[in-house]
Specification:
The protein is an all-beta fold and about 120 residues long. It has a single domain (about 30-125), classed as Jelly Rolls. The protein has no helices and 8 strands. It has strands at about 30-40, 45-55, 70-75, 80-85, 90-95, 95-100, 110, 115-125. Strands 1-2-8-3-6 form a 5-stranded antiparallel β-sheet, with no helix packed on it. A 3-stranded antiparallel β-sheet has the order 5-4-7, with no helix packed on it. β1 (about 30-40) and β2 (about 45-55) form a beta hairpin. The N and C termini lie close together (about 5 Å).
Length: about 120
Amino acid sequence: MTILKEHKEFQLIDLLGPDWHSPAGYPKEIEQKILAGKLDEVSKTGSRTRLLRFRPGALTQMPFVHDYWEEVYLIDGDLTVGDPASGVQPNTFGRNTYACRPPGVAHGPFRSQRGCLLFEMHYYE
């Protein structure tokens, strides 16, 4: 597997800076900051590394399914995965937890009571 990203040495990551934005299809209370790479979902190529933050009370309505790999590390806060209304029994996770999801696996919906910060890597094989 070849994952190409630009070369970057250690940089200060401004967690309060202006370059956070809500990804397409996400509520405004969930924002991302791209750290490296570019994932092209049309041509199904590339990879990206990002931070994803949920503001307190943020939630998604539906499970997600995508055609790329996803690795997620919960740095801080709380994240509840699942919702009885969607047929998925909810489980709440805290800091220092990790998930690895292959393409095609449904996951979510998500909510965070206190807010959370996630480190994510997405990539195609």
